[in-house]
Write a structure and sequence with these properties.
Length: 742
């Protein structure tokens, strides 16, 4: 349980923290409204010293208040929550005060940034971004005047100053005089405080950023923009290849074009053409889309050599953009990593194969233009990342879903050899005989099959030649491209997307199975994992809704079994002669039991499949290998319906919570700090273990073992767990042995 502080200890906490922050100049307290010599918790102590626990979804106790919650940023209220007051509580008062002195000295005084009074006794939280008060509550005076709304920190020097978010439980309500006069507020509160609490955060005046200083890369000079934290510079929309238009459509990426003058890299580039706007996040779409974005905390011309993380988005190889807020690189940049995201061609523009394209290529290959974009982006990083303070010899690539599949394919591609030293695959790595692999976007296609499908697609769009296809507007070309490949037998209704990577003998020389059996994958460290509520598993809170739903499952996706009839029919279709044994291992006599066993079997399958994948990977690679199982559900509307869904780990790994509009809690922030520290360590050393938040050691993440079937749980807990029981591992092994290797 958090320690409880008296009024002297509260001041001492501020003093100690400020002393730790280093020497600073004191700000002089103006003699005006919005300032007071004392912290209110010292001026009006609680009866008997009773305390409330106060937290914020935007910053941890003793942490930095986000720039967005200061007057240098968006002046956005950070949100507060507190434990309920004792019996007899009639109202709450919330006051935010900043310490003007360098050491919290009382004579330096305080600035007042928020006064809220007469909050109803039933209210124990205020949301981040609050613009409307609860009914009955009123504003008091702060630095912006009487009865004023939230005024964020506005420190006048670069030192870290303490800001106290104080909450008071009163046995009374206050009169209107409290709206204009802080002394009147104190007098009205005296003797009526039943309990109080204090959350201390820190803020400082933003330093000037490196973003406005032009840096030189191979194609010219450019400037960027400051991040939410001005210590991080962001460079957006940098071309890494020429626009793949006209005769360059369905060609390997060409060299980027140079520019004159200084390019202002402060806006994301267009998303690559894709059907629908959901995965493009409503952004403009254009074939001129091969751009990337860089986040760095390194100073220009500093000669720093920071490790680099290149992120590849998911989206089933049919959509996506490197500009998604979940991929915001600022959190990792603050941990010493240079982060790169980029766009690559998707759908028909990224993965069309035809005999004519194969003949034209010079390699008798076609269909992997999106993967060639990945390689071109990594080559650009090798040539240019030093200008951003990055070390081209310390590149890690990462991705989720189709992006994780790209990490896997690049690890198998001789064309990517030497371009990265580690890979992070979030929701991809599965045993090649696992039938679940077949309906995923990473279930590669043989070249001949892909060419036949490409010829058929061209004919359906009225094209008789490659010239016709290249002359066709992309808007017409992508019509109907979000379709499935119905010819792949998966043992379920799940089917892969039509446009996906191709084992072409050039970019991808061999299948998963043949690559791992021959040990010819690139020598890189690797991290791979899965999520609790994906590949057919859902949170228990979603069962009733799924049973009541009349909407059919999305085309190509496996159906979640939430009734006995569904569960048994699915088992018999998938397992055939092994179905009875499966149903004994996962018995269900009611719809509720069927839904629970659906989840249990789906999660066992994921963990066992990835563990067995590791046995193959290990044949040709002895570098660090770690696996994980993500279990935490995001807050907000998806919590009960989707749980720890496919991709839900991303903002925690990036520590990008401040870029994503959800009601994050203090627990979410703690998890994100831990998760992103693991990721930063992987990027720095290839091993997740080491220092975590505040310099403490992270919970030990055991390396993968072919002899010990375990996996590291990340999310709700951080500890190793068994992959599954021995009898279930044995069953899945025997089932996989009956299936074709992919």
């Amino acid at each position: 349980m958090p320690a409880k502080f008296g009024r002297r200890a509260i001041l001492a906490t501020g003093m100690a923290a400020l002393a730790y922050a280093g020497a600073a100049s004191s700000q002089t307290m103006p003699v005006s409204i919005g300032h007071d010599l004392q912290l209110l918790v010292s001026a009006v102590p609680a009866k008997g010293g009773r305390t409330l626990e106060v937290s914020s979804p935007s910053f941890a106790k003793g942490g930095d208040i986000p720039l967005a919650s200061t007057q240098y940023g968006e002046n956005r209220f950070p949100g507060l929550a507190w434990t309920a007051g004792p019996k007899g509580t009639r109202s709450y008062v919330v006051v935010v005060q900043g310490m003007l002195g360098q050491d919290g000295a009382a004579e330096a005084g305080t600035s007042i940034h928020l006064v809220l009074y007469n909050l109803p006794a039933g209210i124990t939280s205020l949301p981040a971004g609050m613009t409307q008060l609860p009914q009955g509550a009123a504003y008091g005076p702060n630095v912006h005047g009487p009865a004023a709304a939230y005024a964020g920190p506005h420190t006048h020097d670069a030192s870290r100053h303490a800001y106290h978010a104080q909450v008071f439980a009163l046995d009374t309500t206050l009169g209107n005089a409290a709206s204009t006069n802080f002394d009147a507020l104190k007098k009205a509160m005296a003797g009526h405080v039943l309990a109080s609490g204090d959350l201390v955060g820190f803020a400082s005046k933003p330093a000037s950023t490196a973003a406005s200083t032009p840096i030189k890369i191979e194609t010219g000079l450019l400037t960027g923009a400051a991040g939410r934290d001005p210590g991080v510079a962001v460079y957006k929309g940098i071309p890494y290849a020429a626009p793949p238009v006209g005769p360059l459509r369905w060609k390997a990426p060409a060299a980027p074009l140079a520019w004159d003058g200084v390019r202002k890299a402060d806006a994301f580039g267009a998303a690559c053409p894709q059907p629908g706007g959901e995965m493009a996040r409503g952004m403009t779409q254009s074939e001129d889309c091969l751009t990337l974005n860089v986040w760095t905390g390194a100073a220009p011309a500093s000669g720093e050599k920071r490790p680099v993380y290149v992120w590849i988005y998911g989206g089933g190889f049919i959509g996506g953009t490197g500009a998604s807020p979940e991929f915001d690189g600022e959190g990792l940049a603050k941990k010493g990593v240079v982060v790169v995201t980029f766009n690559y061609r998707v759908g028909v523009l990224g993965f069309l194969a035809t005999p004519e394209l194969s003949r034209e290529s010079g390699h008798a290959a076609s269909g992997n233009y999106g993967l060639m974009d990945d390689i071109a982006a990594l080559q650009w990083v090798q040539r240019n990342i030093a200008a951003f303070g990055g070390d081209p010899s310390k590149v890690t690539i990462g991705g989720q879903s189709a992006g994780a599949g790209s990490v896997g394919f690049l690890s198998m591609s001789p064309l990517a050899k030497g371009l990265f030293r580690a890979g992070i695959a979030e929701s991809h790595a599965r045993y090649p005989r696992d039938t679940e692999l077949r309906y995923l976007s990473v279930s590669w296609r043989p070249l001949a099959t892909a060419e036949q499908a490409g010829e058929k697609y061209a004919a359906e769009h009225g094209a008789k030649s490659l010239a016709d296809l290249r002359a066709m507007p992309w808007q017409k070309l992508i019509e109907g491209s979000a379709t499935i490949d119905s010819g792949v037998e998966t043992g379920s209704d799940g089917k892969p997307p039509l446009f996906r990577p191709v084992v072409d003998g050039w970019v991808i020389p061999q299948s998963y199975w043949d690559t791992y059996q021959s040990g010819t994958q690139n020598q890189v460290a690797y991290v791979a994992g899965n999520n609790k509520d994906e590949t057919g598993a859902v949170p228990e809170t979603a069962f009733a809704g799924l049973r009541a739903s009349k909407v059919p499952p999305r085309a190509g996706m496996p159906q979640t079994s939430v009734t006995v009839a569904q569960f048994q029919a699915s088992a018999r279709r998938k397992f055939g002669p092994l179905a009875d044994e499966f149903l004994k291992l996962y018995p269900a006599a009611s719809d509720e039991e069927a839904a629970l066993q659906n989840n249990a079997s789906a999660r066992d399958n994921s963990r066992i499949s990835t563990w067995l994948w590791g046995t193959l990977w290990r044949k040709g690679n002895g570098l660090p290998l770690h696996t994980y199982f993500w279990t935490h559900a995001q807050p907000g509307p998806s919590h009960d319906t989707r749980g720890a869904f496919h991709g839900s780990e991303i903002p925690y790994a990036f520590n990008s919570l401040d870029a994503v509009n959800l009601p994050w809690t203090a627990e979410d922030r703690r998890i994100a700090e831990t998760m992103s520290s693991y990721w930063a360590n992987i990027i720095k050393t290839g091993d997740p273990n080491g220092a975590g938040p505040n310099g403490t050691d992270l919970p030990e993440w055991p390396a993968y073992s072919t002899q010990i079937p375990q996996v590291m749980e990340l999310g709700d807990r951080f500890a190793p767990i068994p992959v599954a029981s021995p009898e279930k591992i044995d069953f899945w092994k025997r089932f996989y042995a009956t299936q074709k290797a992919w």
